[in-house]
Amino acid sequence: MRYLFFIIIFLPFVEIYTLIVVGNYIGAFNAILLIILTGIIGLYLLRNQGIRSLINLRSNPKGFDPTADNILKTLFTPIGGFLMLIPGFITDFLGLLILLPLTRIFLIGLIFSYIGSLNNNPMNKKPNEDWIEGEYKKDK
To answer: Are 49 and 76 in contact (CB under 8 A)?
Structure first.
């Protein structure tokens, strides 16, 4: 969350720079067509698959296993479609990484390891004085 401000401020500048570099390499017209094509693909994914997955999540709660892994997989499709809808090659690349199953599993693993590192931080742990661990044996 602390980097969100910098991402919001600097992402448009980086997107414009990459658009200029790619436009110089493949041509301005081709770069604009590529941006429009990825925007259309992102809109399709956002409208059809993303909203459908959220509706299925809401309408069929018994058939859905509410683990964090399944929830993240369900939410990654609309997020990836939204990132592809934003004009720019970097957001398109990030959206594509989110939508591909192999990289999605890798990103979910990164998220879980980051959350796990937050939970293992000694500054976040509170001593649990009400709990006593031990073993017992019942004698006859």
So the answer is: no
Q: How many residues does the chain have?
A: 140
Q: What is the rounded CA–CA span in Å between residue 121 and residue 114?
A: 11
Residue 45 carries which DSSP code?
Answer: I
What are the distances in angstroms from CA 51 to CA 38, 43, 45, 58, 89? 18, 11, 9, 11, 24
**Inter-CA distances, 52 with 17, 28, 108, 128, Å:** 35, 35, 21, 44
52 or 122, higher pLDDT: 52
Q: Rounded to an integer, what distance in angstroms lies between the CA atom of residue 16 and that of residue 6?
A: 16
The whole model's pTM is what? 0.67
3 phi, psi to nearest 5 deg: -95, -5
Check if the beta carbon of residue 83 is closer than 8 Å to that of residue 95: yes
